Amino acid sequence: MARKGGKKSNKRLAASKAMQLRRKEFTWTIRANSGPHSRQKSMPIGFALRDLLHLAENLKEVKFILNKGLVSVDGRTVRDYRFPVGLFDLISTSAENKTHRVLFDRKGRLALNEEKTNVRQKLCKVTAKGIAKKGLIQLHSNDGRTFSVKKSDANIGDSLLVRVPEQSIEQQFRLAAGNTVLLTGGTNVGMVASIKKITEATMQRQKLITLSSDGKDFQTTESNVFVVGEKKPAIEVKVQ
Hints:
The chain contains 2 helices and 19 strands. By secondary structure, the chain is mainly beta.
């Protein structure tokens, strides 16, 4: 008889490199569902609650916590233990009255940084732009959001400071020289740097971004940078 539905588990050796887990300690781990973040750069909310926040000892306790409606992501209650959470998502737990932001550490792994309880802002990277009905402009972001606005000069690669769960845009940061970025890929993942120069893309390669950090200059591709502010980050972007 053919199997119905997707897999609910995943072998640890094949799990996303962004997940902080001991790959040889056990065979299986939770598999993230399809959602706002890709599996390569996300982790299931159940894994975050059990293995990083240690709010539960096993999956049964994780399901109990979620079914009680005690956990929200970006202000919206989540009950699916396989829901994927990724960069800059806000995980709030009513039981502890705490909020944690998902960030990258210097090894490219997702970590949780405790925030102020009432924080309601996150950064979203513009990944696509188009025109909808009635002349509205649609901005699509890295975390699966779609913003429909009357006017916007935001381009692909720019970032938006968004208030959640209202999904209102509060500020925009351009992918431009002088602005501050967080490295989300490559050998310098997790580093905060300043843009010095942008070399336009060609048919064979992406934009090349020349960055400066601690007096040292280096280059990376546009896909590895996430604009987080102008002179300094608009929100906390480093794991404490």
